Amino acid sequence: MVDASQLVLRNGTRALEGRDFSDANASVILVEMPPGQGVRLHRHPYAEIFIVHEGEATFTAGTESVRLRALQLAFVSALVPHKFVNSGHIPLRQTDVHLNDRFVTDWLEVDPLDLGPTVGGV
């Protein structure tokens, strides 16, 4: 068991790599993002599942954009560029499930503040 409060909050996310806690082939990001903030365009060599718990987010995957609300999910296939932004008026709470034991991220947009990756580290 892992208590989310034990994970470091960084740029509106708390990340847990599966390899650090079990032999599960999955890693999780817990998102707590204020309105207007999001994660810039990136891709992974594995699929990812987004589960919105509270709030509203606009997801872009490839050439499609969709708005998700609480209790809705989105699936993104491996290597498909994607991003999201909290497009609602309350904090966005969602869980991002990476189907890999660690985060492998190819950032496709430059961070305007040059602070490095916002999630996933690699």
3D architecture notes:
- By secondary structure, the chain is mostly beta strands.
- The protein has a single domain, classed as Jelly Rolls (Sandwich).
- Helices cover 0% and strands 46% of the residues.
- It contains no helices and eleven strands.
- The strands form two sheets. Strands 1-2-3-10-5-8 form a six-stranded antiparallel sheet, with no helix packed on it.
- Strand 6 and strand 7 form a beta hairpin.
- Mean pLDDT is 90; it is low at 116-122.
What is the mean predicted local confidence, pLDDT?
90
The radius of gyration computed from the alpha-carbon positions, rounded to a whole number of angstroms, is 13 Å
Fill in the CATH topology: Jelly Rolls
Low-confidence stretches at least 5 residues in length (pLDDT < 50)? 116-122
Q: Which structural class fits the helix and strand makeup?
A: mainly beta
Briefly say what this structure is:
With 122 residues, the chain is mainly β. It is 0% helix and 46% strand.
